[in-house]
Structure formats: C-alpha cells, structure tokens
Amino acid sequence: MSEGLTYSMKIVALKTGLTPHTIRVWERRYKAISPARTATNRRSYSNEDLRRLILLGKATRAGHSISRIANLPTDRLAALVREEGSDVSVPPQSKQAPPTASAEIRLEEALGAVRSMNAASLESILAKASAALSLPVFFDQLIVPLMARTGELWREGKLRVTQEHMASGVVRTILGDLLRRSPAPASAPGLVAATPAGQLHEAGALLAAATAASEGWRVTYLGPDLPAEEIAGAAALTRARAVALSIIYPADDARLVAEIERLRTVLPDEVTILAGGRSAGNYSRVLEAVGAVLIPDLHSLRIQLERLRAAGPSPGTV
Questions:
Q1: Most Cβ neighbours (<10 Å): which of 191, 198, 230, 269?
Q2: What pTM did the predictor assign?
Q3: Residue 101 has pLDDT above 90, yes or no
Q4: Domains of the chain by range and CATH?
C-alpha cells in the first residue's frame, strides 16, 4: 500500500467490516486510533489507522476485549492475531457486509423526522427499514447511529429535549414490536435484559434484547431500574443462560458498583453477565472483578451469544 494514502470513514468501514459507530466508539472511548481531520472536519484515516482497525476487528472477533487491547502497539496486535491463527495482512475488501447506502439514506430521513418532530414519519421510516434491511444492518447501521446522533445533537443544543424524547419513544416502540415478533422455543438458550437500579435509560437494554431475540435466544425483557435481586429472580425463573445489562448514565454512580457486586452474588455461577452501553467502560473495574463480559457493540454481543450457545445448555435444562 502507498504510505501517503488516506481513507474516508465509508472506505474504512468497507475494508474493515466494522460499522462507523463501532469505529467512532473505539476512537472516542478507547483511544484505539487518532485519525486526522480534513479542512471540513471529516475524519481521514491513514494506512496505520486502517491496519490497526483491521487487527482490532480480528482480535475482538476472536474473543479479546477491546478495552484490554485498544492501546496495544500495532506489532503486538499483529502477534495477537497470529496467535489466533488469522491472517494479519490488510485485505482489499472485507468479507463482512459494508454499510449500505440504503441504511445511510434512511438514517438521514429519520434524523429529518426527528428535527421536524414528526413521530408518525419517524415510525414509518423505521418500520419500513426493519422490513427492508437485514436485522444486523437495521440495528447496527440505523438504530444505533440514530440513537447516538440524537443524543449528540441534544447535548450540542441542536435538538430540544422533547425531540430527543420523541425519537427514543419511537425507537422503543419499534424495538418492542420486533422483540414481540421474535418468539423462540422453550429449548432455546435464555437471556434476561434489563438496566440495573439507578439506570433509567432503557433503549440500550431493549436493543440488546431485540438483538439476542434475532439471534434465536429466548429473551425476557425486564425494563429499566431494577435491583439485583429482581434481575436474579427473573433469571432463575426463566432458566437464563445470560443477563444483559445496559449502563448509560450516570457514569460515576457508587451505588451501581454495589448493585453489580450484589448481582454476581445472587446469580448462579453459570449465568454470564454481559454489560454494555455508553458508560459501561466507566465500571470496567467492578465488571472485570465479577467476571462480567464488557460488550462494546452489537457485533461483539452476537459473538458472545454464539459462544455461550456453543458452550452448553441453559441452566435448569436437560
């Protein structure tokens, strides 16, 4: 490759198989890369950035946590990928599905509906997209970026809180409908999704629930702000193999540390805790201490769900 080449976000997503949202999260939250900016403030990725992202993608797909490997030197990342038996060369094009123009167009349409405070239009756009796109594309390339962008625009003062709340309400409706339309047999592995006590933002937990359901899991969605004992009780009643927690805000709640520790105490040892959300990384110390798996994005969630499924039957099943 020519050392002087630079790449746009769209090209990097195409070559790495990572979604733009995942790339931004790895940059902002984990400082995995530091792309340059163009005169119009767009990200511009170097060959070194591209190589690191490809290696990070291969390493996370092999089971390594992004929080642990994001700041490794590139040569160490390459060695890690080699240890997993993967090719470390930069492919001409990822085998994974790239971001689609259809999802990008629908994202802009959805943001337009949010700006105009048109809930009916937003619901129609998302409902049609859920039927037209594969669910991974719908979740990863439309719903996740839509939630992220509306939050960013609200924090920047470019959206009113009512617009952000309207968008969140419509997204909850769409995800709830998808979850209800994805029944799984009693023999499917079980998962309970919720937010722990003090966590009031439920869209992330609902998105995790819908994703798990689309992967064939038997999902019980509990909603927000639940104490550890209630989450554990639901896991026991439903013979869950995993508990998915969404941690969005606040990022520094001392009570949440105690709740996570309590949850691990009252859950059976064989039930895995999966924790994701914008603020989950802020609680990485306690999450690692209790053996929880930190989930940076939906792609990583799917990988963990597949591993858990392959590991054996759900608790309480024969």
A1: 191
A2: 0.71
A3: no
A4: 6-83 (1.10.1660.10), 101-180 (1.10.1240.10), 190-311 (3.40.50.280)
